Amino acid sequence: MTENNEENGMEFDINKTVALVKGGVLEPQTTWSEYLADNPGWQKTLFLLTGPLLLANVLLSTLFTWIFGGLSKYAMGDSFIAALLFTLVTAVAGFLLAVFIISALAGVFGGKPSFDRTFAAVSLVAIPAWLAGIVGALIPWVGFLVALAGGIWSLVLLYKIIPLALEVPDDKRVGHYIVSIIAVIICNMILGAVLAFSGLRPGPDLSDIGSRNDGKTSISGDIASGTGIFGQAQRQAELVQAASRDQFEPPSDGKVSEDQVEDLVEVVKKAEAALADRAERLKKISEEVEEGEVKSPGDLMAIYEGMGTAVSLQNVEMEVVKTGGGNWAEYRWVKEQLRVAKLQQGSGSDALEHNFELYKEYEDVLGDLF
């Protein structure tokens, strides 16, 4: 049995683990190249790196947090074992989600999807985050800043390792990275919500949180207006929720008015400008990361804000509509009528002919929209 484990790499070697951890922090590029050159299976990485570090992070960070009071009993519940198991389950699930998503999207963006190599890549870049999580738990009240810095640095390393691990082309690298981060965040938010409202999460019952404060939901303004990943994720969630409540009764004749088309054109112009600005900021950040210009805590915070920008890219049109006091349901209806009118070239009904004539008036702006 031992011989089979050695052949498959499924054996824990403390010396190799320490060497990988040290190299992952001090000489990441060299360590990645050497480790990935052997195309290690996920089992080898699990026994050699992922398992030991993830378990150490969960056990020690939960223990230190419990001892030093970095988290309240409200968040962790009264049972240390329950808190430990919950943290372990969410950590493992979050890790596997990231591996599956990053690997699958590599194929979509022209790379070579590989669960084994993605498992290794995510494990290698997660080293700073895992270590910072342990150290941060030792420091009451401000330890989260240490953990945050480690998490941001791991995100920087993830951007760097993707071409090496999955051969994503340079021209699609930023797109793959942004979409992967957004997908991982959304999936983890869904996972967290399911666990919280199913009663599996330790601590008090959260199922009535929406009914407190005289039946009104309350969300922290600081979080909602945050510029980092989690602030933007919260803001986007609120935006989608608000947009989903919009209602619109289409006219019986199916004809779009000129005012509606002008409003749509205005939204499109503003959305294009916002996308260009945010894309330029992300490009600048990616160039700084590529050139190794990330050296200070301020640089890390700039990257953190950049990740928040990436999260907000998915709903730019919705954001323009809602912040301008518009009706998202009406906007979608107008957009769909113009799309169909263009597809049918105005033939088939009076409404299609009317809508196509309006579309042609603004084709220079709307041409690339459909």
Automatic annotation (TrEMBL):
Membrane topology designation? Multi-pass membrane protein
Q: Which InterPro entries match?
A: Yip1_dom
UniProt main location, coarse: membrane
Keyword annotations: Membrane, Transmembrane, Transmembrane helix
Can you tell me where the transmembrane regions are?
46-68, 80-106, 118-138, 144-162, 174-197
Per the record, its GO cellular-component terms are: membrane
Q: Name the Pfam families on file.
A: Yip1 (PF04893)
Where is the protein localized? Membrane
All residue ranges annotated as the Yip1 domain in the record: 25-189
Record protein name field: YIP1 family protein
Organism annotation: Marinihelvus fidelis
